[in-house]
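Dear colleagues,

I hope this message finds you well. In preparation for our joint manuscript, I am sending the Pantothenate kinase (Brachypodium distachyon) sequence together with its predicted structure, so that both groups work from identical material. I would be grateful if you could confirm receipt.
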Amino acid sequence: MGRRIDLSGAEIRGDPAEDGGPPIFLPRQPAASPLLALDIGGTLIKLVYTASCGGEAELRFAKFERRRLDECFEFVRAEGLLGCNGTKTGSSKENMILKATGGGAYKFGDDFREKLGVSLDKLDEMDSVVSGANFLLQNVPGAAFTHMNGKRNSVDISPDNLFPYLLVNIGSGVSILKVNGNRKFERVTGTHIGGGTMFGLAKLLTGCKSYDEFLQLSQKGDNFVLDLIVKDICGELVCQKQGLSTSTLASSFGKVITSMKKLTDYRSEDLASTLLSAFTYNIAQISFLVASLLGLRRVFFGGSYIRGHKSTMENISYALDFWSQSQNQAVFLQHEGYLGALGALMSYGGPRDENLTLEDSQEKLNFGFLPLPKENTQESAAPPADVTSADEHNDSNIFPYLLVNIGSGVSMIEVIGKGKFERIIGSHLGGGTILGLARLLTGCSSYEEFLDLSQRGNNLAVDLTVGDIYGEHGYPKIGLPASTTAASFGKVNSSKLSDYKVEDLAAALLNSFTYNIGQPTLWLICQA
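The corresponding structure tokens are as follows:
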């Protein structure tokens, strides 16, 4: 069975802005030999472990880049985390078992056995993330907070009024989960445009070596140097007529299209700021659409790519508030990047068969996409039996429909009848974004040249797949085969743009943004 962790009286002590988050004190946990759990993701390895401090036990946190696995091994040895850790199947260290989650737990099990002499008890990633979030929200006062208009405010969470909620976990990609209770959740959908995309493009555009360096650059930049706003397109009078703010973002990187500047003519700080706003706003919009479809008002954000970064949280909070008309509020979690590792740590002390099964954890499985309503699916299965004239068909049967207009940005319009329509929502990631980034990354001079390049490229040269994270079998529990794109540009390791073929970059750009346009289109159809 092993040792259970006593969570009663858990308390955060220290500066909330501390790197990785301050320790969590466990006053009733015996200060005995350490416990260690790991979350080995697509780009980072996160560790949560118990340690003794002044006679009390506390949870501590550490992280390493996945490509520096040996540094993680050395840390584990130096901290004495193999002393009497976890579960044993015998008396020797070779029989030691560590709790681990994330795709890397499957890929690097042999490395842990060879280098540390331990086996990994592989736990499902989504199960662990939800368990970690529930642990923080139910046991740790001050773990949840908002960050908007420059102010951070703690949020009091009542365990009796917590469920259901939406959990948006921002890792290399993004997973969106509806959490209905302890051990009860459903992965609703996900997107391949996440932290791995931001960091991959940031390396290529700015030459930054780390994600923290990218975040620091973004703090000093101005995204309006490269972003196209509504005023730039239609002027102030049209903005007033349509009730749009003149400063509303219309197309990320959209100004690059009409500029004669090359990549080297732009400041790294402005490029970084534009990247951050483009993708954090997009994540917030997707979260709003899913929350709206599911009727959820409580939305929590976690994941290792938030990192307590003020602008990241400000952007997400502003965008969610804007699109929901203040009906949804973004709530963030202390130790947001360690949810999976925390959940894995909580599993110590229980029998192996207590781990969640597919039926236990998910009410339904939809392979990463929201299901179409049954009645709509049935109606579209066969054409109508009656025969009508073309005019009758056009007048009576085509309405209503959704028109997705892809220009510099994207507008999604519900057409109700002749001359009757309503713009439902739009996206700042459209054709202007694709061509703007294409010009910076490939030097192409026209959209036609970009499309030609993309036809000859291979996006898998730079895109991170589920197979790259989990191995050849993919992630079958949630229906994701190994070939599924997990993070666009997530495989970019070099900060030298010249290390990559322009054709491959063009193919990755086209795939990432056209797929992104398709997702909200489906969700809007589901709401109809």
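For the figure legend, we might mention the following. Residues 88-92, 352-389 have pLDDT under 50 and may be disordered. DSSP finds 17 helices and 22 strands in the chain.

With kind regards,
E.M.
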